[in-house]
Structures are given as structure tokens and as C-alpha cells.
Amino acid sequence: MPDILNWFGWCTWDAFYTDVTAEGIKSGAPPKFVIIDDGWQSVGMDPTSTEAKFDDTANSKKAATVRASDDFFPRDPASHTIHIASVAYNSVFLGEFMLPDWDMFHSLHPMAEYHGAARAVGGCTIYVSDKPGNHDFDVLKKLVLPDGSTLRAKLPGRPTRDCLFSDPTRDGTSLLEIWNMNDVNGVLGVFNCQGASWCRTSIKNLIHDQQPPTISSTIQPTDVEHLHNTAWSGWNGDCIMYSHRGGELINVGMNTSHPIQLKPREFEVFTVAAVRQLANGAAFAPIGLVKMFNSGGAIKQVCYESKKAGHVELRVRGCGTFGAYSSLRPKRITRDKLKEQEFDYDENSGLLTLDLPVPDAELYEWNLSVDL
């Protein structure tokens, strides 16, 4: 995949619509890539012209991505839940041969976190169309690192198996679950999309239920299809799930269900990781940067007991609060093999947390060594 897909971007469309100017573009937030969009569409151009060559960059024969949905409509309250459901289900097909594009969104919007969480589990390029100065940096910090890179999941986000033949926008009983994988763990997004749907008669999105229900359901580690690929021979199926919004660390078996309840337009994102049993009797599982939607995307590698029993080494990208599960309080943690790292440990849950500073270099990976 082109490297540009791993960086944060900005599209001018919702910021300026057809009134795009050089001055306006310069006034925007400094992203790593820019899509200049004034609504222009080519029809019957000379195929040798400059315009035709530019237009061809969007052709799927030459690009790695393809739009998976209708546009993001910031002013249409009926569109937001439908948008997330549409891109997830369309990615079942499109994700087999292209990287689905889940479109831009606004970081300063009532549904910004809902859209942002979906992009984080979608494995898609993350870009916004904010007007200059109209940004919610609390939302953006959950998606973008200070160097402008994102923690993009490895696969196109797809609905879980139990969602494939349900209608989480209209049946009044189903939640939409979207799974994806990182290098060392998985991610599961759960969304209440009930209340609005596409109307074939009026040919537009409509709210069909002004008071959609709170939905109760269950999730389990097996909802993340390839989680076993991050484990090892002899794995007993023990897992942890960490909830982004709730901040709860849950110990479960591979096939153990965990209850979840979401109000209309609510969501939750879970990092799901296999638990490794170590030779000294300790157990460990990596979570990631817990303040980010796709926390596990920050961990690039985990190495267990390569030097001695109870020793774990991790390569971690980014900054902020890093978390992991440990059944024992660590004896010592070092960063980049030299600096002693302070940490906090919750004896009840086994949640281990520490703060990583902002690195000087882009895409820098910290080396963490944990002795249990």
C-alpha cells in the first residue's frame, strides 16, 4: 500500500466547497496530505489533456483505494449511522481487492467521535474536511500522532460474522460490530446504528425512529477473525479486552461472551489481545496507547522471554499513556535499554500503564523492556 495512507490528511471540500483558493488552503491545519476538491467533475475531456491525466489518478486501475460509501453529510442527521453501516458492509466485497475509503468527516461535529472511532477500526486512510480553525483536537489526538502519522489497522474493517445477515440500522435489536487486526492484537468497534435508513421511495436517508432503542448484546474475542495468528503454539485461549471509552480491562476466555449495552448513536472500541503465559508463572498481554481509538496499532512487535524468564520486550510507536495487562507487578521497566521507566500498576485489574514522551523523530519506535 502507498505510504501516504498511513498519514493524516485534509480535504478542502467541506471547508470551502467550490470556493477553493491558495490562500484558503494555506490557512488550514498542517496535514501530511491534502485533497483539493472543488466539486469539479470531468465529462468527455480530451484523453491527452492535463485535466484528463489528473482525473485518471482516481481510477481504480492506478490507485490503491476506492470509495466505499456515499459522502459524509455533516448537515444531515439521518446520514451518520447509515454511513458507518454502509462502509462496513461494502468493505466485505471491496476489501478483497482494494482498500476501502470511508470518506472524510469533521472533527468538530456532534458525531465526530462516532465517525472517528469507525475510521480507526476501518483500516482506512484518516482525513477530515474541517474549516480552518474549526477543529476538535481532543478527537484528532485519538487518531493522529504528533508526527502526523496514524495508527491504521492492517485490514479493511468488516462486520463480524454474527452481523453479516442482520440489519443494525432498522431491526431494533442488533448492534454493528466491526473487527480488524494490528501487528500484535486485534480491535473491535461496536456501534448502535439504529434509527435511520435509506428510503427507496423518497430516495434519501430518513430517520424512521425518533427514539431508537438502547441495544444490549454480547461480544467475545472470536469476533476478531485472525486473533489466533497473534498467539503462539500451545495458547490456551485466554484473552483480555480493553474498552476505550470505559477504560475497563476484562479477562475472558476465547469463547467467553461479555455483555455490552449502547444507547442510540453510542459506540465502544475494544482492544483484544491474547494472553501469554510466561515461564515464571506471570501472564502478559499488550494493549497499546490507551487514549487512542485503535490503541493496539501503536505496538509493532512483542518478544517474550528471549533473554530470560519473565522478560518481555516491546517496540512501541507514538506517545502518551501506554497500557498492558500483567498478572504480576513488574520488577523493572526500561525505555530504549537505558532509561528507567516509571509506571503505575493496578493490583485488582492487572492494568500496567506508563507515559511515553513525544519522540524527536517521525515514526520513532520506543524499545520497552519489562521484567516480571
UniProtKB/TrEMBL annotation:
It is an enzyme of class 2 (transferase). The keyword Zinc-finger does not apply. Keywords: Carbohydrate metabolism. The keyword Cell membrane does not apply. Its EC number is 2.4.1.82. GO terms for molecular function: galactinol-sucrose galactosyltransferase activity. It catalyses: alpha-D-galactosyl-(1->3)-1D-myo-inositol + sucrose = raffinose + myo-inositol. Belongs to the glycosyl hydrolases 36 family. This is galactinol--sucrose galactosyltransferase. It comes from Salvia splendens (Scarlet sage).
